[in-house]
Amino acid sequence: MSNIAGDVGSVAAVWRYPVKSMMGEALNAAEVTERGLLGDRPYALVDAETGKVVSAKKPRKWEKLFEFRASFVEPPLSGQRLPHVRITFPDGRSMTTVERGLDEAFSDAFGRRVTFATAAPDKPSLEEYWPDLEGLTYRETVTDEAMPEGTFFDLGLVHVLTTATLNRLRELHPPGRYEVRRFRPNIVVASTGSAGFVENDWVDRTLAIGEKVRLRVTGPCPRCVKTTLPQDDLPKDPGILRAAAQHNDANVGVYASVEQDGAIRRGDSVKLL
């Protein structure tokens, strides 16, 4: 592990996802709170039959989630109630989260009854399908995965990904289209002076972003079948996950907790402390 502190890059992109597993919003700036980026994954769909959080990690049931887009009708502000979200359906129509008939519209789209949840259950969980790829913890099976209590996050509050990692994966699987949207990060760091899976050396270290924000890197981000699924013009590609599994223990990027909140903007410096 490298112990060198200092500049590691700058913020190239900022993303939030108002509804879990739906397409999100690319931002120029965002507020980082103790619970991650303001407005990130506060909502989700819940399977009325099983009570489990709906996630594209079970693509045979929920792959269509990637055809929905979610965006706030106005920017969220710290200390205020979150604004409503506009959902754009695969057929192009849209509804806001306060309109009557939203649950029925989702249920019709998926062919099974779902509800729009504005608060996570005490012990949320989801179903995860593991494809038959060497290097994964499980293969060709479905598991029940616990989520952080009272949240709609998979594991960590903030997902950070570097361009160095994306470039390394492109080298390992040249046919793959390693675009940011496949990996659904919150913060993309344009790496400077380093190559390879540089985030691996950040675990248990602190990232300083801009003037105020401090993130504690808690661990690697394990990837799943979602990275292989088609999104808009991105094709289905199992090689995306295979490359990560064979060369970096199926990890792409890192998770972080928030040590100090504040605003982040594209172009902000990112330093390793």
Set down the secondary structure blueprint.
Elements (H helix, E strand, L loop, with lengths): L5 E11 L8 E3 L1 E5 L2 E2 L6 E4 L11 H4 L6 E4 L12 E4 L5 E3 L5 H9 L3 E4 L7 E6 L10 E6 L11 E5 H10 L14 E5 L14 E4 L3 E10 L15 H11 L2 E10 L1 E4 L3 E4 L1
Parallel strand pairs: 12-13
Antiparallel strand pairs: 1-2, 1-13, 1-18, 3-4, 3-17, 5-9, 6-7, 7-8, 10-11, 12-16, 14-15, 14-18, 15-16
Task: Please tell me about this protein's structure.
The protein has 273 residues and is mainly β. It has a single domain (6-272), classed as PK beta-barrel domain-like (M1 Pyruvate Kinase, Domain 3). It has 4 helices and 18 strands. It has helices at 59-62, 102-110, 163-172, 238-248, and strands spanning 6-16, 25-27, 29-33, 36-37, 44-47, 69-72, 85-88, 94-96, 114-117, 125-130, 141-146, 158-162, 187-191, 206-209, 213-222, 251-260, 262-265, 269-272. It has a 7-stranded mixed barrel. It has a 3-stranded antiparallel beta sheet with strand order 4-3-17, with no helix packed on it. A 3-stranded antiparallel beta sheet has the order 6-7-8, with no helix packed on it. The radius of gyration is 18 Å and the shape is globular. The two termini are 14 Å apart.
